[in-house]
Amino acid sequence: MIRVLVAKPGLDGHDRGAKVIARALRDAGMEVVYTGLHQTPEQVVDAALSEDVDVLALSILSGAHPTLVPRIMELVRQNHMDDVLILLGGIIPEDDVEDMVQAGVAKVFGPGTDTNDIVRFIRERVKDE
Amino acid sequence: MKDLDDLKQGIFQGQKRAIARGLTWIEQGRQEGKLLAQQLFAHAGRAHVIGVTGSPGVGKSTLVNGLTLHLRHGGYKVGIIAVDPSSPFTGGAILGDRIRMQDSVMDQGVFMRSLASRGHLGGLSRATFGALTLLDAAGFDKILIETVGAGQSEVEIMQMAHTTMVVLAPGMGDDIQAIKAGILEIGQVFVVNKADRDGADHTVRSIRSMLGLTSEHPDWMPPIIKTVAEDGRGMEEVSQALFRHHQYLTEHGLLDRFRWTQTEHVIEQAVSDLGERLVRQARSESSWTKRVSAVGEGSDDPDRVAGEIWRHSIQED
Ligand code: B12
Ligand SMILES: Nc1nc2c(ncn2[C@@H]2O[C@H](COP(=O)(O)OP(=O)(O)OP(=O)(O)O)[C@@H](O)[C@H]2O)c(=O)[nH]1
Ligand SMILES: [Mg+2]
Q: What's the pTM value of the predicted model, to 2 decimals?
């Protein structure tokens, strides 16, 4: 069973995308933990750790990804969660995508993404035991 | 952290990562997880296990959060298991109980895990017993289990929790229905949450009058407590009631009996899991169509077919 945490870090009230993703992954047979809005990086990583998820799916539309994502990645490394697949979606300008990947994000998904592509990407990367 | 002994050490030290991975092993139900649960069993038995059940949206998760904050002030370590339903069609699930628990779970003295029911009926997940054993062995003093919240057929919580807390809220219309449907028998503590809303006293009176009609608990009269889980009102009273119930079980020597019936239940559960596996196996074999046709045409009967499937599986082992 593939387990995913869909998280909304930072002071970002846009939750439609996160909910769309959560439902699409559930419909694809995954178990999705959703923690709601306004999560600190510490809360996001604590939840991912306790829930032992295979995938950490971050949705950020506020523009704060350049500070939030590196902080989350630092905590992920501190907790030795190297086996977790990290995805990012929302409003991420083209120019920032490379930095996000450098920081450790496996792939960035922008507006208009077909949720089937996300499901396929996860299935390719995570072995379902 | 692949190794069983490392994992056990981590669990005894209360490391979140080890606890989390151990729970995954147990949930996956493979040999390594079974072995882990079995080895941890000898280290379990100290925790007070508390069930939290009630209809969807009454405030179970919010109450677990408020109660956890309160118990932490008292210095108790708190483990939380929250079960949500899996889709019967896709097997997927959205596990949303954590949303309401975010104030309490960051603490090092708290561990919270969401479980999907994975087709198990009765408001819990098949992994519940193993998960309880693990959290108990990890040293949590109080373990709170939030059930699915389907409302009616959730008697299994009684087998898993020393104290079952039934949560209701005023103005839910179906209050009395829920009480009639047998929820009365399973509660040792009743909570009327959302007492900031109109009608809480009415709900309390309904429960009280229904309780008056049963003589299920000769020595323990279930208290009925009003709470506002969102701002913490009533948490002191709830935790007092839980302590008193645990003390009652201890003083009347009922904890051993609880453990015995719980173990019986777990074995019964394993037997019915085995039955389900047999059915799946039988369906996947080529003889299945022939068997169905035979029963359908009246040339064979279902009990005989069941016996044959069973004998067939023994030969294979
Ligand atoms: C709807 C909307 C709102 C609604 C939000 C309602 C809600 N509950 O979600 C409201 C009106 C509340 C709102 C408010 C604001 N908004 Co607004 N909003 C939008 C808008 C028009 C659409 C967003 C949306 O819901 N799209 C539909 C969902 C399904 O798409 P999505 O989120 O992009 O998700 C898809 C993909 O990105 C991806 N995805 C998303 N997350 C993830 C995560 C993972 C892991 C993966 C794999 C994929 C993935 O998959 C999804 C499906 O394809 C966008 C503009 C736009 N076209 O994007 C602006 C926009 C996001 N908002 C913006 C702004 C500035 C604001 C406000 C600050 C405005 C203000 N001055 O008050 C406030 C802030 C609110 C807050 N508290 O955070 C800006 C953000 C600018 C920036 N980041 O640089 C945008 C881009 C508009 C703009 N062009 O300026 N907004
Ligand atoms: N007014 C009021 N609202 C409350 C109170 N406690 C919880 N709520 C609200 O009730 C709603 C449901 O709360 P939850 O804690 O998610 O309820 P639940 O029983 O866990 O729900 P499920 O897990 O979906 O069955 C939320 O919007 C809470 O904010 C309370 O004491 N007063
Ligand atoms: Mg809940």
A: 0.93
